[in-house]
């Protein structure tokens, strides 16, 4: 066992840290100002302009597509090596991930395309995504069913001559509202008579295809999440796409969704920890700066205990996430199933704990827009539901734990 | 001991329940639609029109100013009798309290005026408030100091001939953004050389007085809280008001703020429980309606445990709040100090617990604007900070508990 | 609503408080010393001698059988009136309940006999129990099945001519080890073909009947609970008792067990709160007396928060228990089912919370026998399992809550 | 980063696992039986005889003194390599550690002697300890002061000619009651005028020295912990020992205590996790074996959630402990201070969480002596106080976290 990062990873972390210090943090104020101005102008889903320059800078430094474990298009980093980069990007979650072309859901979509796309599909969609020229969304969850159970999914993908007809209503298609978003990866039932987990397929649906209506964006608490493209509610009304648009094997949707989740979970979790680390810094800063009842908040035992607990909880969540990354690298997503489920529960939960305390230390300012805490909290709270609520993941872990004790099913 | 409500209280509860069923719930959709339209039109702080009719209806039914423990202007209810009315109003917290002219912060302000205003002050401000014609705000908290320690307050009220000059910057002046808001009760230091708790006074400052600038509204987890007038950041820049505007005794600000808090806490806490009761209903409805992994969520043991715990927690919080109300009625705010502090911690905390589980049962829908849960959560989370964070109240309770064990101070 | 105790109840509480101060607390040291001496002598289940005098004193003061809601044999107190007496007795739980002939499981057994016994059964068993001359045990739980589901019970009560033959193995028959214990109320299946909840009966089995073997006593976190008679593991091996020994209606065992539980839960819960109140006092005393890092523990914010939380939690648990008592008095055990389940979860849980913190404030002394905290903790922890684990009670509450939302069963 | 154990460590773990399976688990029943018999015979502190053979077996297999990071006397394992061995030994905590001569407090004492003893001291005390022929105790904590603050320690070590006079009263000298215990390492104030942390020294006091009285053993919950020598309360009444008995540098007591704690914490924490892992196994076994309300407990969602949470919590606590071990190996005890404090809080806390749930799944059997759960719980609860309560460690962590935010002390 060795808890030291590789030299390469340490160097890269240092480089990203410098990029954050020199370019990202200084741009935060401008970014939020531009987002507010777009909102006031009735165009909340425009991407703040300041981002363009940051993308150029990041790309010029080689801080581009680092998430992709492919030496040709990405940096060839292992999941374990990329994890601390994801954490650092989470410290400025509105800007840094996208500046480095490492933002969700595009990362997951690019991974899917990288693994499963045909050369034509790659050229048309993956290349501009890797170049950061267009954006994409992932349309799986549906408003009408408990989508935590993927077999509930009701949208259909029906063969009709040279085409597939995609029909259904999706929501939480994050990023779909932004003008740059061109393509949706849609999950639906193509083979209803197959075995339970072989019924779904994934298909590429251009957002300008006839029959696609982006109805509206759902809010998250009171946030429209405009600067990263909102969360689209999309109606796919008998949308016809050529057969060539099928992504990966027919009936392979469920399996591909699982594959997509592994590294994506690491990214989400590490970014969550990055947010929480930043919140902890804000908590410490505020605690030493504010005085009540004759002494700084940082002298209050209760506040001290929160700070200590925060350190402990983040360290534990990070270690578990890093180990999970290592498992994905060494034994694969399947072999890491229990841990992938575990971090999905742990990282947002612990990050939320830290955020809650940071808010409390800030007083009413903490719930306001004057500090980033409330918005970070809202995003993290959503992660307890995205990709299935905590309870579904705990259920999977328990099933695995109980296996040795149960009689084999005949 | 007798846990039964009085006949009068039961009858009134029944009447309010009917008012909610017949008038308030059916108006919710319209209310939110109007609020959204105003927001889209750039006037988020307008009061949705539908409210006007509801006020007429409530008043015609005698459901008006029930909060005021005065038989002439209110209904002459004890705090204990009013408490369950407050809870019911919390079930539709955007509409019902204001429809019945029982909404914060006007209730607290009306109480202060009722107790301390001169006849002229009453005529000018209290009467139109009781009539629901104007609205008011309370300007105590300041952005630059930890206002949980009221002795930190820095705004000044300085005598100058026939006037007082009010100077300072306040925030979280809830309701200040609405057009109908005319008057602020401002707390400031008038007598800096007095004993620590006799330095502040309260003064009436019309919002159209020269020197008053309402800078902006702070958000709460992304919500502008527009339909009830936002939360104003107000700059009072050497505002001159006649000496007659002083409210109550000079140097009595701290004491008056304390007096204001007692019944107001009951209202806040009961409304919180009303919100949580509604959330629990939504949780049960959703749990029976959604199916995952082959059975309704309501058959999942974990969901069942949440529902049971919710019932227990709300019942306990309600009993403590009711007892506190009874104590205020029988031994006064001072005698109920420990309990008033306790419910401030308990009611929002337990209500938040229920809301969190209700959200979880709703999946991603729970954090969106499609259900009222996320917004209720945000409001309740804010209550853990309003009037001082939990920790300040726990501190007070502990001091009281430890008194018998400590040597008397000489 | 009225949160004031009746004058009669207040007077009685005052009398019990004086009895504790003058007689019980001063006897605690002697009691524990005698118990230790008996243990060392290999007779751990002897009742410490000092108790005899306390019983005489209590009886002479009329503090005797107060639990029994019958004016002739008890004091004719309502459940609500007795509840605070039970709490006070919990403050010295080894001594006070038994000194006042109000100790479990005899109270529950006396209630059963009072409600269901024939005149002959009353004369033989109830009268000496009410006189405090003999003791009894209740044999329901079985080591071989999950007894939280009462329908799992496997012991049998089979008719055979003029006799019933009782057969089965029971444990947690509290009090069975003491020499004064003469009689067990045994629950078993008499009518296996009846409906699920009409299969069990209760029967009186003298402990000296042939076939009864008290095998051993189970410990509770290392404690033998010797001074109140341990927890017997009893083998009933084809024990023949006359038909007249059947208690109450045949097939009525389940119903009688439920009826027994209502008031008994109030007693248990209130005694738990009494223990916790005493622990809170010890916590405060220790906190002001011990100094670490330059100041008394009572100056540490974290300790203060524990003390405040303890006060809040105990107050809430007490109110819920009192309301439940009131419900039992006014609408009966059935009408109070949800609340009876709720306090079973709440009272031990909150009391344990307080105990845990009290232990922590005492440092290593807290887990030792030098303070009563560890033993109180162990007893309270057991209450989370006695009469069914928390989870079973939460399950019942949830079922009740969900009823209005579920389709009626056809 | 690499989460794989070294081959050597894996091989050793396998060997220990086999030793447990073949020798230790099968001896558990006998061990507890012998302990019970000694207790009944009034000699509770005798070491059960079966242990002798296990020691011979372990030593013959080379499973002896593995804790000692010294290739000559121990196995030359790093702290990181030994950690999983400690965890495995915790699975049978009464037997395995001592069978392998790796039990506390002897391990810590042997480490101190190994680091600081003179050749004469080594020959007299370390060699027989390493041979498992004698046992030792560590006398630091005092009943009269809050020993969590080591500067409170009041015992004195006063120079008098060729001797030191040791005077004071100690408790929680674990192991002191056993007949084989010969030597105490006593901490006391030798230089009261030195700087705060340079006042204490350690000195070797043979338990048969005149003036040493072992007064009694304190219990832990209801356990005497007899089979591993109880917890002695020792009076050192002006005990004269030769100057040569001073251990390490005079005034170095505090520093030596700190040094002792680092690896010792790893051992304690890993053993705790070993206990919890065994409890989790018992929980799973019971959950599948017991049926209530028509299905096995393992089908109850709540029980499943406990099992999943247990797995997550133990995994997180283990990773943090392993990282801490690695830090001790690579940057030393000082550099690992925050983590050493963190695991002290985390490992017992999480292990207790698991134990609590395991008990709950076992029903009343869980609190009894029929399963090892209650006793494991009691031991783990004590760990939250041993070497300082959680709160002291959280305090240290917070101080470290806040350092960068505070102005430098001038």
UniProtKB/TrEMBL annotation, chains A, B, C, D:
Residues 9-133 form the Acyl-CoA dehydrogenase/oxidase N-terminal domain. Its cofactor is FAD. Residues 251-400 form the Acyl-CoA dehydrogenase/oxidase C-terminal domain. Residues 137-227 form the Acyl-CoA oxidase/dehydrogenase middle domain. Keywords: FAD, Flavoprotein, Oxidoreductase. Belongs to the acyl-CoA dehydrogenase family. Homodimer. PANTHER family: ACYL-COA DEHYDROGENASE FAMILY MEMBER 11, MEDIUM-CHAIN SPECIFIC ACYL-COA DEHYDROGENASE, MITOCHONDRIAL-RELATED. This is Acyl-CoA dehydrogenase family protein. It comes from Longivirga aurantiaca. The lineage of its organism: Bacteria, Bacillati, Actinomycetota, Actinomycetes, Sporichthyales.
């Amino acid at each position: 066992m060795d808890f030291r990062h590789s030299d390469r990873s340490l160097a890269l972390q240092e480089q990203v840290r410098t990029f954050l210090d020199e370019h990202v943090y200084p741009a935060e104020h401008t970014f939020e100002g531009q987002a507010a101005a777009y909102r006031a102008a009735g165009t909340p889903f425009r991407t703040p302009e300041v981002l363009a320059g940051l993308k150029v800078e990041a790309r010029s430094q080689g801080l581009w597509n680092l998430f992709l474990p492919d030496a040709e298009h990405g940096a060839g980093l292992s999941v374990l090596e990329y994890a601390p980069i994801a954490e650092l990007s989470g410290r400025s979650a509105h800007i840094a991930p996208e500046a480095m072309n490492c933002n969700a859901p595009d990362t997951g979509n690019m991974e899917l395309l990288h693994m499963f796309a045909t050369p034509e599909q790659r050229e048309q969609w993956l290349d501009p995504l890797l170049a950061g020229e267009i954006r994409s969304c992932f349309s799986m969850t549906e408003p009408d069913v408990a989508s935590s159970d993927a077999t509930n999914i009701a949208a259909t993908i029906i063969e009709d001559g040279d085409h597939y007809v995609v029909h259904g209503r999706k929501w939480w298609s994050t990023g779909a509202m932004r003008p740059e978003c061109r393509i949706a990866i849609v999950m639906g039932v193509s083979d209803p008579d197959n075995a339970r987990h072989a019924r779904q397929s994934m298909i590429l649906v251009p957002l300008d295809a006839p029959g696609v209506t982006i109805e509206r964006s759902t809010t998250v608490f009171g946030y429209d999440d405009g600067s990263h493209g909102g969360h689209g509610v999309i109606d796919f009304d008998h949308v016809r796409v050529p057969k060539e648009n099928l992504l990966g094997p027919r009936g392979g949707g469920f399996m591909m969704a699982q594959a997509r989740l592994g590294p994506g979970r690491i990214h989400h979790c590490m970014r969550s920890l990055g947010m929480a680390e930043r919140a902890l810094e804000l908590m410490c800063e505020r605690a030493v700066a504010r005085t009540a009842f004759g002494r700084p908040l940082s002298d209050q035992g209760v506040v001290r205990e929160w700070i200590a607990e925060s350190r402990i909880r983040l360290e534990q969540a990070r270690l578990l996430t890093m180990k999970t990354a290592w498992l994905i690298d060494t034994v694969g997503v399947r072999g890491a199933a229990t841990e992938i489920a575990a971090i999905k529960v742990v990282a947002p939960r612990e990050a939320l704990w830290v955020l809650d305390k940071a808010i409390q230390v800030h007083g009413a300012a903490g719930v306001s827009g004057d500090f980033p805490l409330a918005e970070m909290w809202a995003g993290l709270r959503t992660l307890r539901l995205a990709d299935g609520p905590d309870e579904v993941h705990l259920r999977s872990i328990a099933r695995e734990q109980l296996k040795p004790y149960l009689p084999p099913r005949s």
